[in-house]
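Troubleshooting log. The previous run stalled partway through. Resubmitting the same two chains, unchanged.
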Amino acid sequence: MKAAVLQFPGSNCDRDMYTALKRAGADVTMVWHKDADLPEGVDVVGVPGGFSYGDYLRCGAIAANSPVVASLKKHVERGGYAFGICNGFQVLTEARLLPGALLRNGNLKYICRTVGLAVEITDSPYTSAYAQGQHIRIPIAHHDGNFTADADTLDMLEGEGLVAFRYLDNPNGSDRDIAGILSPNRRVLGMMPHPERAAEPAHGNEDGALFFASLLEAVVSA
Amino acid sequence: MKARIDVMLKTGVLDPQGAAVQHALGALGFEGVNEVRQGKVIELDLADGTSEESIKEMCDKLLANTVIESYRITLL
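Second attempt completed without errors. Output:
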């Protein structure tokens, strides 16, 4: 599996994402935001966490209009896999590759701690290695993770089984406790929690490793 | 020419920052502040003759996230 991790000025989880993909067995390339093209034959594009462009204007807004994200949109149109973690989720919503938006946390605080999540669906390339309804613990670190969408969009996400992860104890005010969602073809995922920060023994928590294992399995067998 | 863009969260979208400002005003003793909505103002210095259509496109593509925000263009 060939993976690319995008790097914007202000990205700070790019190396963690690189390492998690690498440990799962992917061949990973870092791609700078000014590069107009993704590497040839890339299967999966990861959009990492951080503060791309200093969160100017809105979190993820400037990154969503960068040259590399134009290529990412083409990759997704071709049916390619893409996932965004934290700021990466914000970038994917700003790029309209996923519905909804991420507002300031309801309590206005930057929250950095490990939270409980429920795995809501397992028939997706990102969650197949988990058990249905499994409770996992994954770190969050964000100021703007309050997922919001209009009622019709929320109903559509729930009805189509596109809510991938839900908070067990909603930390940020997200509508319907949503922590991560999928695109209608299930190849694009966005989530605020950081599975790449819970992906190896040194992290003291490997609940996120199955996220990357699922992806490898899905892409290699596809 | 100049244009001013007022960007506000849409009605119905929770504005926790506005709510915090409202509470702070109450703590200062200002009574009767029913609601505070916080937005942003963006000023554009534009080449003469820039069409309003083009400014609208700038808003839709970048300056506002129309999923959660509305905007108002004022030519100055």
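Takeaways: Helices of chain B lie at 16-27, 52-63. The longest helix of chain B spans residues 16-27.
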